[in-house]
Amino acid sequence: MKLLVIGLGDCGCRLASEFARLNKRAKVERHVSIVTRAYAVNNDQASLAVLTKSGPEWLQPIFIRGSLGGDGKSTEAGAALMSEEGDRVIAAMRPGEFFETDAFLFIAGAAGSLGSGGVPVMAQQLKERYVGKPVYALIILPFEPEATEPQCVYNTAICLKSIHKVADAVFLVDNERFRVGGNATSIDNMGSLNKEIALPFYDLLCASEVVGSGYVGVWALGVGDMVQTLASWTAIGVGKTQFSVSRFPWRKMQGFQEKGSETLKAMEAMSAALGRFSIDCKLEDAGKALYLLSVPAKEANVDMTKALGNRLRELAHNAEIRGGDFYGARDFAQVTVVASALTYVEEVKNYYDKAVRVAQTLKREVT
Q1: Res 289 pLDDT > 80
Q2: pLDDT band with cut points at 50, 70 and 90 for residue 281
Q3: Which is deepest, 293, 298, 329, 359, by most CB within 10 Å?
Q4: What is the pLDDT of residues 214-254, one digit of tens each?
Q5: Contact 40, 62 (CB under 8 A)
Q6: Superfamily of domain 231-342
């Protein structure tokens, strides 16, 4: 699947850069393109200059000349600015790339102003211009310290509600789930965090683009499978386990015990993926789900893919399941899992509830 990636605001721009790097990696490792172009849209020219100075190819900055109204912190200010500048931003993009891409992916932090307010506005503009082209969003929820600030709570709730109405699917990311420790907002930690957020998309995007017997597995996962799976609130995760290196290279035939061991490794990778979901959710709340196995061709067997599908059906018993495999790994098994059409996400409900309390507090203060 080829994406046209549009990052809005500081957070969105940094992650757009990571997707451009994933595209470079895909071209080197698998000789495919998974991002037609990544755009970094911001009203901070200095930030854009730093990001693109040594940034990857396929990342193009778009500077917004307007300024945020009011105190510049509200999601309404971001929405108003993007309403004014949206047409100019779209005009700055290369028209041919819209037709080469399979879907749009908007990226923004939910707690800010430009990103949180601008992403639903621009998503709506592109959706109206390119009818039938899927529009997805990758929304980053704030860290715990920010989650207690009234303005951040309000912005996050409004952003979630607005983008959910517009986008075909919304990938949710809880920053705290990827936080290892230390100062999460430091440059090094932020870079590592962004890589972790973007990584689960790598195999998923490559699977439908690779061709030839060297990559295509038993059950191919196509763009249509992904489009039919992605809907509403969505979580994504990836897990990885190493195969044993103590193998004799001249042993070409796999025995029953060896196949069972490899299948177990794939199951462990799936468990790791579920434990690293981008947002805390229950699989029983998923209306659709997808799994993708990436293994070396010499380690692949039908039992591995079947076992993963059976396991996911047990866990997501209300979901429509799709799955596939491809030979994209070297000496490990890597499993990507997507839970989509989630009917309930605790974190989303918490922000809606907190936003109501914030509004009630402000109303009492005014009266």
Answers
A1: yes
A2: very high
A3: 293
A4: 666 677 888 999 999 999 999 999 999 987 654 444 444 45
A5: yes
A6: Tubulin/FtsZ, C-terminal domain (3.30.1330.20)
Residue 11 amino acid letter: C
Nearest to 234 by CA among 311, 337, 321: 337
Q: Is the pLDDT of residue 255 over 70?
A: no
Cα distances (Å, whole numbers) of residue 42 to 82, 146, 157, 167, 280: 10, 21, 22, 21, 30
Token pair 């310290």 in the structure block, residue = 145
Dist. CA 195–CA 107, nearest whole Å: 14
> Residues 65-75: what's their mean pLDDT?
78
Encoded tokens for 35: 């991002």
Beta strands across the sheet bearing 135-141: 59-63, 35-42, 3-8, 103-109, 135-141, 169-174, 232-242, 332-342, 286-294, 320-326
Q: Where in the chain is the domain with CATH 3.40.50.1440?
A: 3-209
* CATH number of this structure's domain 3-209: 3.40.50.1440
Find the DSSP H helices in the chain: 9-29, 45-53, 75-91, 95-100, 114-129, 150-166, 175-178, 187-198, 201-207, 223-229, 256-275, 302-315, 346-366
Q: Which pTM does this prediction carry?
A: 0.91
